[in-house]
Amino acid sequence: MKKKIISLVSVALLLFSLAACGEGGNGGDAQSINVYNWGEYIDQSVLDDFEAETGIKVNYTTYASNEEMYSKIVSGAASYDVIIPSEYMISKMISEDLLHELNFDNIPNYKYIGEEYRGLSYDPEEKYSVPYTWGTVVIVYNTKYVDEEDVADESINLLWNEKYAGNILMFDNPRDAFALAHIKLGHSMNTTNPEDWYEAAEELKKQKPIVQAYVMDQIFDKMLNEEAYIAAYYAGDAMTMMDENENLAAYVPREGANMFFDSMCVLKSSRNKEAAEKFINFMCETEIAVRNAEEVWYAIPHTAAYEALDPEQSEDPLVYPPKEVLDKCEVFINLNKETLVLQSELWINLKTQY
Predict the structure, then answer these.
(1) Intervals of CATH 3.40.190.10 along the chain
(2) b/e per residue, 164-173, with b = 16+ CB within 10 A?
(3) Which of 8, 134, 248, 263 has its CA at a distance of 20 to 30 angstroms from the CA of residue 37?
């Protein structure tokens, strides 16, 4: 509501607000940061708390895939400070000098990140990233419409089952979609053998007539509203969907799956690096990490927060799969240029064929 007269109290409140904003960093630019994250991947209340505690405004937007995020950044169409890519994309962005080296003096809560999540292959010297969550790809299905005998063996082949033609959803990004085909064929998801990629493309072409749609965040509406019965997606999002629709269930394919690590990074183009690092540190506060994990249902690398989780979450085998399941999973690496070009060509051909 507009006020015609600004009272002395209002002036005092305004001055207090401006002073709080000044705590965010140096100058006007540091009073806000642009955070670019996956959809359905944060508890809104922690953003509100960060703003209240620091006076730094968070401009928060989302993307549906690593490739979408990367394209937006390299196009220069928008400016961001904090991004949360997956491991192979972090490796790619490091190689292209797109990420800032972090000042860990500004991120003391990094001490809570478990040793097993540090120094991984995509950032071996721990210079550019702070782990946010991890998980696996799972197959989600609706128990009302999918026959029990078709999921008894927990196979990836469910995604190619013609019985469910028109009710299967697939990833709308090439890395995840091709990974499923590679798994079905017994290939490494990181193969650089062109023949493996051509074979995987043929598997996706065989599957295409029974696929209802290639989706990312649209999966939520389609699976929750029972407009589709089967989909491959990320474990945390699967848990969210299962919580909202009791007919949904999920499993990690027995043949294997992608195991992913998403981490918080600061772009080299950021004008608010210190404020961005303050945000990363805030997300690593134990109480904040617990609250965020309870909202998004992804596995967390934060040791103290993990110990504080409800056992219903910390002991769930879809969220924290047992070793024998993880041993069959594979982490994406940054593929060489020739393989990426081939992947892109094959994906475009798949999506444009009738």
Answers:
(1) 15-134+260-320, 135-259+326-352
(2) beebbbbbbb
(3) 248
